[in-house]
Amino acid sequence: MFEFEVEQKVFNIHGVEIGGNPGETPTVMIGSLFFKGHKIVENSREGLFNEEKAEKLLKDAEEMTEKTGLPSMVDVVGETQEAIKKYLDFVSDKTDMPILLDTLSVEVCIEGLDYAKEMGILNRIVVNSLNPETKEEVYRKIEEVNCKSAVLLLYSSTAILSSKERVKLLENLAPKAEKAGIENILVDTVVLDMPTLGLAVKALYEIKNQYGYPTGCGAHNAIDNWKGLKKKFVEETEISSMGVANSLPIALAGDFVLYGPIDNAKYIYPSIALVDTAFSQIQFEKGKRPDKQHPRYRIG
Predict the structure, then answer these.
(1) Dihedral sign from CA coordinates of 288, 255, 67, 73
(2) Per residue in 202-223, pLDDT tens?
(3) How many other CB atoms are found less than 10 A from the CB of residue 70?
(4) How far apart are CA 222 and CA 13, in angstroms?
(5) What phi, psi does 36 have (nearest 5°)?
(6) Residue closest to 14 by CA, chosen among 59, 56, 67, 74
(7) DSSP collapsed to 3 states, 64-114
(8) Domain boundaries in the chain?
(9) Which residue in 1, 37, 191, 264 could disulfide with 221, CB within 3.0 to 4.6 Å?
(10) CATH code for 22-295?
(11) Cα torsion for 60, 50, 241, 215, to the nearest 10°?
(12) Do residues 61 and 31 touch, judged by C-beta distance below 8 A?
């Protein structure tokens, strides 16, 4: 079980280790902040938001890290150049988590990278994401500012219907990212709905087996786009389904999960910690003992 053909890569991004074999390195939890429709955002173009509520969400995620041993990153979504600078100012001041720079245009991404360099926080920045449609200007800016971390998103019109096509996309994306200076490559195998979650998980396993990169996906999209969920089932079903959807890629060797709104941290972390704890026994069977910060020693 999970005997991969290649050595698994483990990267350290601002103190957070990500990657490796199941049961060794704890799963990295990535929650999104300031996304479209986020209730704490008051004006997405100007970057105005409820700072008290935003800080509480960050602290809640940090508390879940303490309780479970699962490290946290935060996905900061910015619509405009003005907004992304305000968001980076706030988040970098309120937490020490690594920050995924999740922008809606080339201009905003470039502004975010320039501002992160100006602030001196590039070591915390993970570009989210580079995909087959990413413009050359972004790669040039990454090289110029010397950003070292990025998520590679395996999305295309053909890949969304095929796990094999997703793996093929990586063959072109990874060398391009490395040429721009990216050393810490994280791979997102793309989830849009419930059926694509299955393809994402299959691609995830194949990528780890062939390349060894830390790999995960936005499994929450399977729940967000489940149209009949709230109509056909009781309210609690959504919470239990979130736990299952986010746990599935981790149960099949994933290294990180983009679990959706950071507001849901309290529901998702325990489920993932359970999977990590179960897999830690595989390492014991091999004569290896997980670090004392592992969920195995936190959630019992």
Answers:
(1) positive
(2) 999 999 999 999 999 999 999 9
(3) 28
(4) 28
(5) -60, 125
(6) 74
(7) HHHHHCCCEEEEEEECCHHHHHHHHHHHHHHCCCCEEEEECCHHHHHHHHH
(8) 22-295
(9) 191
(10) 3.20.20.20
(11) -70
(12) yes
In one-letter notation, the amino acid at residue 88 is L
- The owner of tokens 């019109």 is 157
Q: Are 132 and 172 in contact (CB under 8 A)?
A: yes
**C-alpha of 152 from chain center:** 11
Rounded Cα gap, residues 296 and 300, in angstroms: 7
pTM above 0.85, yes or no: yes
Q: Does residue 294 sit in helix, strand or coil?
A: coil
Work out the angle at residue 95's Cα, subtended by the Cα atoms of residues 130 and 42, and round it to the nearest 5 degrees. Answer: 75
Q: Please, what is the end-to-end C-alpha distance for the chain in angstroms?
A: 25
Half-sphere exposure at residue 52, Cβ-oriented, CA atoms within 13 angstroms: 0
Read off the pLDDT of residues 244-300 as tens digits, 9 standing for 90 and up: 999 999 999 999 999 999 999 999 999 999 999 999 999 899 898 888 889 999 998
